[in-house]
Amino acid sequence: MKGFFAFTLGSLALIFCGGYFFPWVLWLLVLIVPLIILGFVDIFQKKHAIMRNYPIVGRMRYLMEDIRPKIYQYFVESDIDGSPVNRVDRSTIYQRAKRELNSQPFGTQFNVYAEGYEWMAHSIQPRSFDTMNKDPRVQIGGTECRQPYSASILNVSAMSYGSLSANAVEALNGGAKIGNFAHNTGEGGISEHHLNQGGDIIWQIGTGYFGCRDENGNFDEHLFAQNSAKPQIRMIELKVSQGAKPGHGGILPASKNTPEIAAIRHVKPHTTVASPPYHTAFNTPRQMMEFISKMRILANGKPVGFKLCIGQKSEFHAICKAMLETGCYPDFITVDGGEGGTGAAPPEFSNSVGMPLMDALAFVHDTLRGYNIRHKVKVIASGKILTGFHILRALALGADACNSARAMMMAIGCIQALICNTNRCPTGVATQDKWLQAGLVVDDKKHRVANYHQDTIESAIELAAAAGLETPHHITRSHLSRRVFMNQVKTFEEIYPSTEVGALLNAATIEKINIDNW
Question: What local confidence, expressed as pLDDT, does residue 284 receive?
Fold first, then answer.
C-alpha cells in the first residue's frame, strides 16, 4: 500500500513537472489516472487482502491463478500426464473426428514398466480385419420388451441440454443419426434440439422427473406415456445415481429456469426447481423393479433400464433379489464410474464418492451371474471410454456396450478448458452464451462425431482381430493384463476373478437380503 501511494505521488509529480516544460507529457494522465483509480478501488474493497495490501500489483496473483491451468496444459504437462484426459487420448479423439493422420511414430510414450500399465494379448493367428463385421450391435430388450433396440457398442452418454449448448446437443444427435448410434438426453428432459437432427434417443429420467412430472414434482404417467411415444425415443433410462455426484441432488436456480427450459422440464419458469437425491416414485428395491415394469408398459414395450454408480454392494444385491422375487427385470443396467463425468459436482463427491468403473463393472456382471440373471439384462459401461482399447477392456469386464460423454464432447471441439461450470466454455460446447455457441457449427461438428465413432469402433474391431477373436464380444478377462508392481503382472481374470453362474443362489444368503427396505 505504501508503494502505491509513493507511485501515485511520484508519477503525478513527474507528469505535472514535465508538462510544465513539455505539454504533451500531460497526455500520460490518460494512462496513469485510471490506474490510480483502480488502485484506490483495491484499497477500499474488503474481500481480498492481497489486493488491499498491494493495490494493482495484487491483481496479478488472480490473473496468474486464472491462466495457470492453460499454461500447465500447453507448456508444462507431458502428453501422458494430463488429467482427466491426457493429451495422447485427446489427440486420438481430435484426429479421428477430423479424419487426420491417425498414427504415431517412435513407439509408445507410456512407461510399460510402471505400475498400472495395461495391455491386451494378441494372437499368433490373428483374423483379417476386412472379413469382420464393422458395425457390431447389441440387441437390448428382454422378454417383456415389445420394441427391442439394436444398439451400437459405443453411444453418447448422458448430458443434458442446459449443461450443454443447443448447438452441442444438435451436433451430437446429428452425429448419432449419421453413425447409427444412440444419444442419451441426460436428466434435463427432451428438447427440440434433441429431435431436430433425427438421431436415436435414450431418454434419461432422474429424480426430478423432468418431462414427466406433475406440479408437485412427482412422476406423471400421462406425460411419460406421451413423451415416450415419440418415435426417436428408443430406450428409457431411469437414473438412480451418476458417477459425477452419486447420492447428491441438484438445484435449477430461478435465473436459469427460462421459459424454454421450463417447457422442456414441465416446470414453472423463473422458479427454483430442486432435484432430490432420491426417487419419490419408489422407496424399496421391490418397488423399484415394479416401477421399471410399469414404465415399460407405459412406454408401449420400449426397453427400460436404470443407471447407477455402485456404492454399498448390499443394495445392489437387494436389487438382484427383487428381480428374482418380482419377476420384473430391467432391459439394461448402465454402470457409471465414480471417477465422475461431465456433470459439475462438489469436489468431495467427484473425488471421493462412488466405486470406479472397472471395479463396478466387474462387480455388477459377476453379481448378476451369481444370481443366474445375467442373460436377462444387458450391461452398459459409462465412464471415460475414449479409445478402442477402452471399449474392449469394458467388454472384457462384463459390458455389452459402452457410453461416452467426454470423448463425444471433444469430438465436437471441447479443449478440456475445465470451466464447464462457469458458462464461459470457449468452444461453445458447455455454455448458454449465444455468442460462444455461435462458434460451434452443427453441420460441421456432427460429421466429426460420426467420424470419431466409426474410427473408434473400427479400432476396437482391429484389436479384436489381432487377438484372433471373431467379434469384440468374445474378449475375456484373460486377454488383458495389468502391471500391479514393477516385476509382477496379473491378468484381469486374476484381479477380478469371475463368479460362477448361480454361485450366489444360496437360500441362507438370499434370506438375509431385505428387498422391502434399502
Answer: 96
Of the candidates 307, 306, 221, 205, which has an alpha carbon nearest to the alpha carbon of residue 265? Answer: 205
Amino acid making up residue 358: M
Distance of CA 246 to CAs 50, 169, 240, 311, Å?
37, 24, 9, 8
Q: Provide the whole-model pTM.
A: 0.89
Residue 343's pLDDT is what? 56
Query: CA 401 to CA 158: how far, in whole Å?
Result: 14
29: part of which helix (H) or strand (E)?
A: helix 29-44
Residue 138, φ and ψ in degrees, nearest 5: -130, 125
The bridge status of strand 480-485 relative to strand 488-491 is antiparallel
CA distance linking residue 356 with residue 383, whole number of Å? 9
Q: Report the C-alpha gap between 169 and 27 in whole angstroms.
A: 51
CB-based contacts of 478, cutoff 8 Å, min separation 6:
121, 491, 492, 493
Q: How far apart are CA 69 and CA 180, in angstroms?
A: 37
| Buried/exposed 505-516: b ≥16 CB within 10 Å, e otherwise | eeeeebeebebe
Other Cβ atoms closer than 10 A to 334:
32
Q: Cα(356)–Cα(281) distance, rounded to whole angstroms?
A: 28
DSSP state of 419: -
What average pLDDT is seen over the chain?
Answer: 90
Terminal alpha carbon distance of the chain: 60
Give the 3-state secondary structure of residue 463: helix
Produce one character per residue of 279-301: b if its CB has 16 or more CB atoms within 10 Å, e if not: bebbeebbbbbebbbbbbebbee
Angstrom distance (rounded) from CA 95 to CA 82: 18
Cis peptide leading into 84, omega within 30 of 0? yes
Q: What are the grid coordinates assigned to 51, written together? A: 489486493
pLDDT-based confidence at 7, cuts 50/70/90? confident
d(CA 327, CA 77): 52
Distance CA 264, CA 173 (A): 17
CB atoms closer than 10 angstroms to residue 78 = 10
The cell numbers describing 102, all together, are: 491417425
| Burial classification of residue 496, based on how many CB atoms lie within 10 Å of its CB (0-12 exposed, 13-18 middle, 19 or more buried) | buried
